[in-house]
Amino acid sequence: MGTCPQSIGQLCEELTMDSIASKLTEALDKQRTIFEKRGIKYALIGGLALSYLGNPRFTTDIDFILHIPQLSLPGLLEELLQNGFEFDLMAAIRTWTQGNMLVIHYEGFRIDWLKPPLALHQHVIDRALEVEWKGTRIRVATPESMILLKLIAFRDNDQADVQGLIANKRSLLDLAWIDAEWQTIGELTDPPMVWFKEKYQLIINS
Length: 206
What we know:
The protein is an alpha+beta fold. It is 50% helix and 17% strand.
């Protein structure tokens, strides 16, 4: 994330921020339309979700977490192919069926689909908010959901993102919900949660 897609190569420098944003919005809107038509439950996560939530980040990736009933997968993928998305149909079906992630592309831009392997991940989808953004409607993960996903990954950039979300949302964050969801996968004494509570207190008291 944060770099132009490799498939664009030397044309990367010629792309304007407006053209990148336009293509990302186009890809978002096409997927959203197809998801809704087919009853697919989803939430936008990743850098674009962070940008909507007030943590601006340059990204050329789109990240979704979504639940796709197995019988719906072939038709969904076929419709995406018909709408300009790029991937090998049979390989995509095999990858999604056997794993937890699928990468597809739209005009060179990368799109990551993630399965909800745990109840916590399904709750991220269920709790997503439908918002108007960049001229389209989209379901975006809540700040609390993004914090949970970042605490699970807990890399340096994830920690920076969590601190940004705390600074932006402060006392509006539903800490009880974060605690309850974390306890479905671990303990409140786990290092990521101890770190989170310390950073939260430090930031809101600053």
